[in-house]
Amino acid sequence: MRPEILYPLFCGIETLKGVGERNRQLLARLAGDKIVDLLWHLPSGLIDRRYSPKIREALPGRVATLVVKIKEHLPPKNHHQPYRVVVEDDSGEMILIFFKVYLESIRKNLPEGEVRVISGKIESFNGMKQMSHPDYIGGLKQLDEIRNIETVYPLTAGISNKALNRWISQALAKTPLFSEWLNTDFLRQKNWKSFNLALEAVHHPKQFSDLEALAPDRMRLAYDELLANQLALCLARQRVKKQAGRVINGNGELRQKLFSLLPFQLTDAQKRVLEEIYADQRAPYRMLRLLQGDVGSGKTIVALFSMLNAVECGLQTAIMAPTEILAKQHLETMKPFCEQLGLRAELLCGKTKAKQRKLLLEDLAQGKINILIGTHALFQEDVRFCNLAYVVVDEQHRFGVQQRLSLSAKGDKVDILVMTATPIPRTLVLTTYGDMEYSKIDQVPEGRKPVDTRVLPVDKIQDVVAGLRRKLESGARAYWVCPLVEESEKSDLAAAQERFEALKKIFGEKVGLIHGKMKEKEKDDVMEKFKSGTLRLLVATTVIEVGVNVPEATLMIIEHAERFGLAQLHQLRGRIKRGFEASNCLLLYAGPLSETAKERLDIMRKTEDGFLIAEKDLELRGGGEILGNRQSGFSEFKLADMSVHKDLLYTAHKDAQMILELDPKLESPRGKALKILLYLFERDDAVKTYISG
Fold first, then answer.
1. Is 134 helix (H, G, I), strand (E, B) or coil?
2. Taking Cα atoms as reference points, which of 515, 437, 493, 158 lies closest to residue 278?
3. Distance between CA atoms of residues 249 and 313, nearest Å
4. Three-state secondary structure of 260-297
5. Average pLDDT over residues 597-619
6. Of the candidates 179, 186, 180, the residue with the CA atom closest to the CA atom of residue 654
7. CB count, 10 Å around CB of 567?
8. Which residues does residue 83 pair with via DSSP β-bridges, in sequence order?
């Protein structure tokens, strides 16, 4: 239950004075449909209305607040002319201009002979001072109220700044006085105000520096939001740790044999990560761990070792991939090893034939299959395991949490390892994946050569084709990546289809085409021909971004590279980091380049460090598409800005951990205040599911 103290803030915005149905819809679109949403709608600018000269001294171009007497009204002679009102003070005259005329309103607000306060931008026309549509018209009693600093908010068509200021003032008036949820020494050290005073100050900035993300009052509110986020995730993680699991601790026999079969040594990073996973598997609670490893860092073999730990205990395991191409690749990697170990690994996907599927499912239910590899097909109701204990989810962000849970529900107390080759910035790991334990393979296998990345203008395409010819003649294989499947009227991007036709004229039958609109079977056929070397050049869209494994491919050409995000470029380049041969990546761009595009291409040229690239991507576009669906959690922050508040996040993370160590049920005075914080920032789930048990 939401605490009673918060009821006023969680009423609908229609309860505010002056918000009818039309305004309710506009406000809901702009900020949200509850009063609390208006508190998080922060100002973006200021208008200083304190400049209050006489008419004669008023400078054109400045916003001024004047005390004037209404001299006369000059109605227009025809509907093309504006309505004018002459006003004066003891220094001279000025004209007020109205293009949109509500006669009754103008005459009521500006009666001849009366004194009025007006505020707006001063203009000059034919030597005469004028003001078009004053922002404010009021009586002398309102002088101090108008002659002030006005807060400017982001707006939407149909909502004026004046009206929004009025509604936000009402929202602030409804905000209760909260008990302090931050540590007193920490507040003093940061020199921060209380939450209520900081909120008031943020909505009434006195100078432009108060609008900056690093202004103390904005920092205070950002910290509150980040602390609510971190506390909720820490509570979720504690809940997972409280869920009883099964102890998986094999005798090491199969793993020892696998070590002797490997044609390479595991890296130190792989060994470290395996120890972290084994420790989780041995523990009596459910495992939920995120494994992050850059392209080609060897996650699949780590997954296989951890699966063998479960198989040694007589248990079944499953690995789920987002595409059939990737699922087949896992099978190709794992099956030869499994056969040599006397184990059975099988593939189940949408295309598995009915008769084969029936037999496979019977064997699975009887425990005759040790490792099942598949796509979304693993979720289907008739897929029943004999004793599923361990699930690996590859490219986690392509599956929803529900899908992950429905697969783990097919076993009893199932341990879960989720893997991604998409480098995730540390800030995102904390804010979005904080409910999981976290491992990182930050080392590539020895002997891998760096990719030579070059940036070229698209008009050098003939030179590129000549270089490509030399590469193909020497026996290499290459990718040519295009951003679209076919020309559209809205875009001038080179279409994959068109590029394929052009390259086929040059290189004949050695060229293949693969894109997202092809049927799965067609895609598989093309990939098989490319892997076997029948095709030497593959023209593709970003369908090859994840998991395609052809070690002989050592050249990648990305056309219109300026149109891709950093994370996507990095993933694509990863396709030519599969073998131990030197490889080249050519990024072709069409000018003129924006500053951001220039910076993206420059980063790609200078580094292959996926984690550094992910951090840069986050800086350049506030998260972009780094994590697909799950990423949306990151942009949900209303007050915190990860490009400047990273340090606050790290502090909030430590603070949340310490709070729960000292007060796991949030029962102390500070703990009770923190429960209010969780509800205030709508992290209710954490409170309900954990504190209520």
1. coil
2. 437
3. 7
4. HHCCCCCCHHHHHHHHHHHHHHHCCECCEEEEEECCCC
5. 85
6. 186
7. 24
8. 98
547 Cβ contact list (under 8 Å, min separation 6)? 321, 323, 325, 326, 329, 394, 395, 421
CB atoms within 10 A of CB 588: 22
Residue in the structure block whose two tokens are 């020895």: 446
- In this structure, are strands 415-420 and 388-394 parallel, antiparallel, or unpaired? parallel
pLDDT in tens, 409-430: 777 788 999 898 777 777 777 8
pLDDT at 484 over 60: no
Evaluate if residue 400 carries a pLDDT over 90: no
pLDDT value of position 351: 83
Task: Specify the pLDDT at position 517.
Answer: 77
Q: In whole angstroms, how far apart are CA 377 and each of 361, 373, 496, 683?
A: 12, 10, 30, 33
DSSP class of 81: S
Q: Which helix (H) or strand (E) holds 140?
A: none
Residues 6+ apart with CB under 8 A from 343: 254, 311, 370, 371
The answer, yes or no, to whether residue 58 has pLDDT greater than 80, is yes
CA dihedral (12, 219, 150, 638) in degrees, to 10, reads: -30
Helix axes 299-311, 253-261, angle to 10 degrees: 150
CA angle 186, 190, 192 (to 5 degrees): 100
pLDDT tens profile 268-296: 999 999 999 999 999 998 888 989 887 77
CB 273 within 8 A of CB 439: yes
Lowest mean pLDDT among 237-251, 288-302, 390-404: 390-404
Query: What are residue 625's phi and psi, to 5 degrees?
Result: -115, 25
Q: What are phi and psi of 95, to 5 degrees?
A: -115, 135
Q: What is the pLDDT of residue 51?
A: 96
Instruction: Map residue 555 onto helix, strand or coil.
Output: strand
CA dist 478 and 573 (Å) reads 11
625 pLDDT above the threshold of 50: no
CA distances (Å), origin 226, targets 56, 100, 640: 52, 46, 7
DSSP string across 489-522: TTB-PPBHHHHHHHHHHHHGGGEEEE-TTS-HHH
Structure confidence at residue 107 (pLDDT): 92
For position 297, what pLDDT does the model report? 84
What would the two tokens of residue 94 be? 């000025």
Q: Helices (DSSP H) in 204-353: which residue ranges? A: 216-242, 253-261, 268-282, 299-311, 324-340
Per the structure block, which two tokens stand in for 117? 């306060």
Question: Which residues lie across from 92 on neighbouring strands?
Answer: 89
Measured distance CA(476)–CA(553) in Å, rounded: 6
pLDDT in tens, 101-121: 788 899 999 999 999 999 999
pTM for this prediction: 0.72
**488: DSSP letter:** B
Residue 23: CB atoms within 10 Å: 18
> What pLDDT is stored for residue 101 in this prediction?
78
The alpha carbons of the chain give a radius of gyration, in whole angstroms, of 32
More confident residue, 369 or 615: 369
